[in-house]
Structures are given as C-alpha cells and as structure tokens.
Amino acid sequence: MLDKVESNAILDRLPAHLQQYIKPQNYDDYTPVNHAVWRYVMRKNVDYLSKVAHESYLDGLKQTGISIDHIPNMYGMNRILKEIGWAAVAVDGFIPPAAFMEFQAFNVLVIASDIRQLEHIEYTPAPDIIHEGAGHAPIIANPEYAEYLRRFGEIGCKAISSAKDYEMYEAIRHLSIIKEAEDTPKQEIEEAEKKVDYLQNNMGKPSEMAQIRNLHWWTVEYGLIGTLEDPKIYGAGLLSSIGESAWCMTDKVKKIPYSIEACKQEFDITKPQPQLYVTPDFAHLSSVLEEFANKMALRKGGLEGIQKLIDSKNLGTIELSTGLQISGDFSKVIEHDGKPIYIQTSGKTALSHREKELVGHGVKNHPDGFGSPIGSLKGINLAIEDMSPRDLRAYDIYEGEKIEFEFEGGIKVKGEIITGTRNLQGKIIIISLKDCTVTYGEEILFKPEWGKYDMAIGKEVISAFAGPADNLSFDLITHKTSTTTIKSKSTPEREELNSLYASVRNIREGKDAKFSLDAALELVKKHHPKDWLLSVEIYELAVGKDEKLAKEALNNLEDVKSLRPDISHLIDGGISLINSQLVS
C-alpha cells in the first residue's frame, strides 16, 4: 500500500503485514462542511484546552504542523513529524488492537482519515481525524510521552488475546460505523449495542490484550495528569471531544489515582466515561506499564503462558531458555508438577532464534505442526543446553549415535542422531533424529514413518507472546473486516450547502467566492433551516464590520435554536468564542 501514499524513512521500515491496513488519505474528498467541522472543534478546543490541557498540547500543535483552520494533510504532517522521529498513516476506522499497537512500536501514528458528521460534532464513537490528528499527534511532541507510546506499542502487540477478543473488536467496529453513519435505523443500532453489551458481559477471564487495552484507554485515550484536585488533560479522546473535555473536569466524573488496577476497569466507547485516572507525570505511566509487562506471559513464560496461547486459538510464539523460538498455533501441552514437559502445535510452524527464522526450519519444513519435549533429562543434573562438547560425548549425544532420551515427567525420545543446531553462544538448540519414536506412557507422540524428528532443546519456557517471532515466516497479509466505513451520500441539497460553506471559507481567506455572505445567509435560511454552523461562520466574519448582517445571522441562529434546542449550547459556544476573541 505504500506505493499509493507518500512514504518516508520511518514508514519504509513498516513490515508488509502492517502496510495492509494503510490507505490513501484522499484529501480532496473532504468537503467544505468537513473543514468547517474541523475548524469549529479546533477553535473551541484550543480556546478551552489552553486552560485545562497539559502544557505539551499547545506546543505540540505547533510542532506537528496541525492547522486550526484546515483538516491536516497527512503528507504535510509527516514532513514535520519526522523532526520528532514519528510518522502518520491513514486507515479505515478501527483496526485490530494488536496492529494499532505495533504501529506505535514503529513510531507511527495511526489516523482514521474520515471525519465526524456535523451532527456528531461533539463526540463520535468512531475514530476520526479530529480524534487521531488533533488528539494523539500534539502530545507525542513531548519526548517522555512519545517514548511511553512507543514502548506501550512494543509490549502491547505481544499481549495474548482470547478467542473472543476479535469478535468483540468486530462488534465494536460495526457499532462505531453505524452510529456515525447517517440514517442508520434505530433498531439496527440497538441490536448492535445489545451485541456489544452481551459480549462485554460474557468475555470470561480477561485476556492480556483486554487488560492492556484497558490501560491504553485510561491513559492514551482518556488520561488525566497532575493531581486529583487539579488534573490536566492529555488523553486523545478528551482532547478531541469538545463535550467530554468539559464534562471530565466536573465533579460528576470520579478521579482516581492511576495504577495497575486500571487494567481491570472496562470501558464503553459509546458513552461518556464515569471515572478517569490521573497520573502524577508521564514517567509514572511507564512504571505502571513495566509493572503490567512483568505479569505478562511475554516475561513469565511457563505453563500458564503456553495455556494462554492454546486458549487464544491464534498464532503465537514460545521462547525456550536456549533462545529457540517456536511459532505456530499451539494446540497441546503436557504438564508434570506444574511445568510443561511437552508442547505441540498444529499446522504451519516455524523455528527461529533472535526473531530470525532458522534455515531449514520454516513453515515448508514444518507444515503439519511441531512437537517437542521441554525440560531436563531424568537422573541427570546437567541440562543438555549446558553440556560442553565433552559432556555431550559422554552421554552419547553425538552424530550417528542411537540414543534414548528420558525426560523428567516421562517423555521418551528414541532414535538415531543426525545432527545438532547451535546458537551463537554455542548452546545446542535443536537435535535432529531419524527412525525416531516419541512416547508419553502408552501415548505415541511421533512415529519413525513421519520422517525426521527435530527436538527442541530448552529446560524451560521463558516467554510466550502473540504473533510470530519472525514476521517473514508466515503470510500475515490476510486482514479482512466484515464492515467498511460508510460515506455520506451526495445529494443536490448537500452539494448546495457545501458550495455555501466553500464561499464563506473563500471570503475568510480572501479568495473569490461564488456567493456573497448576504446571499449565503439568505440561501441557508431558505433551503437549509436546520443548519447552524454556516450562520456562526457568517456571524464571525460580519461582526464588527457589517452589524446588519451580523444581527441577521444571530436572528437566524435563534430560529435554529427554537427548531433544534439540543444544539443550542453549540451555537452559544460558537458565538461566545467569537465575541470573546473580538474583545481580546
């Protein structure tokens, strides 16, 4: 997909399985109404957030090249973002959490390039360019926060999901799309909400991905910083919502000191948050992240880590104490005294070391799964991986020798040694045998007629994580979503309204316009009586210069408020901002 977008050195490093999510921004598709929505939100936000946001926000707007008046062009953003070591790409709505986090690990900001409708100007459950561009981008100009974001992605993309997590992702993605789309039947939204609610209440034990996603939500998306008594906003969800950024500062939202306990707190993307977490500083975020990572299978491995991979029903990797990494769909583990003594994968499997596939041990060599004992030999205090060449010879672990290994726990491997594979430190990590039989009591785990047997060497499993060790080992370009974002329909009425908005914008920028301000106001009154934002923009240009027109715009806004009392506060907010800036 990078051949369709303007790339740079940071984007060029992205692996193909992440590039599959990237789409062109199609900047020309943004309408004048879209730009007006962006401008209203940004003007309101900058005015309000200058008082309540973390100091990095306003500085970051300047550093990331984000304009208040126009939706940012991602290519322009990238030219500026590269100065702080980051880049941005456009995607279509929500993407899987693991992919989202892996982008962060590469210092790439994922931006949903669609923009919310005017009807949802305060808040949308769907990710959009206001949320991503105006929320996430400015704060990454803070070096400590940027490193937290990168590190979070690096750890988060290794978190193991449950089988239900992807179903939940698809349900939330679908709900966010239809709630943002125009004219979605109420019944369809209610059914989608019921499905999300049902899944949330029937997820079972939260997976690592579910828990770290919670941490991401309560920090990156909805985080506050400072003290409980005087918190400041840094979370992108708050920075991009003119409604919730004000709501969150009230006593109606409970403020809680941020700790690892936040990983247990679920969230609902469709509603304002009833509680928020406050971190004293950005360094504390990293401390909690490391605390959580220490509890992950990524760092603990063991029987529990293998079982998490089996339960996930997804591609994952275990790493043994020799550094050998086994990637595949784990289907079975045999345990003894609380420790794994045999592991089995099903289907394509690859063996790697230090995230690089071993020659001769890709999925073509292991197309039907891989099984191996783990642990120490029975009655021998010295593990195979710790044996010197002399020790190996003494125990007949030598090329051409017929041998029977009996491991603690009862796994037996009998066959003729063909060769061994060593790592860079000289430790033997694989022993290959022919005419091999592997048994566990009466159960036969491998038969001679199945061919060469590769036995992994490692006394313990030190790590287990989602995804392959070497991304090139597997075909990962398989992402398909059941839904795509729904674009607004083009109608003659909408085209006329866009033309009016374009004229007002051109007048503001000193360009030729199709309609004068007076004509634009008359047409919006006559043909678009429910529209309010254009009259606000006309008032902004007329006040102090053409008081008659300014008064007519205000009168029209009063008429709109009587028709639509639900948006009165948006109209009042826009007028108040204009008047306050006029005075200053």
TrEMBL record:
Fe cation binds at H131, H136, E221. SUPFAM superfamilies: Aromatic aminoacid monoxygenases, catalytic and oligomerization domains. Residues 1-342 form the Biopterin-dependent aromatic amino acid hydroxylase family profile domain. GO terms for molecular function: iron ion binding; oxidoreductase activity, acting on paired donors, with incorporation or reduction of molecular oxygen, reduced pteridine as one donor, and incorporation of one atom of oxygen. Its cofactor is Fe(2+). Keywords: Iron, Metal-binding, Monooxygenase, Oxidoreductase. GO terms for biological process: aromatic amino acid metabolic process. InterPro entries: ArAA_hydroxylase, ArAA_hydroxylase_sf, Aro-AA_hydroxylase_C_sf, Aromatic-AA_hydroxylase_C. Gene3D superfamilies: 1.20.58.690, Aromatic amino acid hydroxylase. It holds the Pfam family Biopterin_H. The keyword Metal-binding applies. Belongs to the biopterin-dependent aromatic amino acid hydroxylase family. NCBIfam families: PRK14056.1 (NF010657). This is Phenylalanine-4-hydroxylase.
